[in-house]
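pasting for the record
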Amino acid sequence: MGVVGAAVGSVLANVGATVALVGGLVIGRPLGGWTPPVAVSPLRSYVDVETTRQIAEIGTPVVGRNLVWTVAEFPLLAIVALFGPSVVAAYVITRRIWGLMNIPGWGFGLASSSLVGQELGTGDEMTAEVYGREVITLAVATYAVAAGVVCLLAEPIVFAFVGSTADPVSSVAVPLVYAACVAIVAQGISRGAAGPLDASGDTRWPFYSQAIGMFGFSIPLAYLGATTSLGLGGLYLSFLAETAVPAAINYRRFAGGKWKAISRGYRPNSVDADD
């Protein structure tokens, strides 16, 4: 069956796993050697209005933040296309390298929000802030090392994508990679500072920062580069603005400490803070 068979097999495997999981939770008895930790009755109501409101209040900005790049990708690529096919190819290559350098960001964001959230849950706001600052420092250091390595190896990495040093794409991609290496360091601040904000329920500001950085600075700078004498410098600045603006906004919000007060409105039983 070829590709069709592989697709059908993948769908059936996912459906089977879902049915087994749901069935085990509903039945509440061992299923294939796995004992569900809880039993879920399909006839019982689990809706809590206040919890649902809080989930929507905290989760909606997170969804918006994740959609920023998806929405911005189309106009940004259209602007990059104004530079010509060689620049488009170089930009896509740089984005691939950027994605690899950015892998630690998810881990730092989750670690920060988890550690900070645990301490906020016990009312220990001072320790929560310490954890937040430590994660930011570690994130910046990790990104700086990754950026340094990629910067030193920029030419061979680009050549691995292009396949030839004579290809005009390489002469554009290498400087773009250098710009991405500078910009990625700010991503450590942005991701690290967003973690405590997420943990406290103050998710609006990371969304605002991402949207402002992309639509207020990154895309306009790329457009200026494509339509004025700024040229490729606009793309370099676009990369930098994409991370530097959210980093500045998120860190300012984190350093201001208002996120700790916001978290008190979401804590169960109104746990008293320690500061």
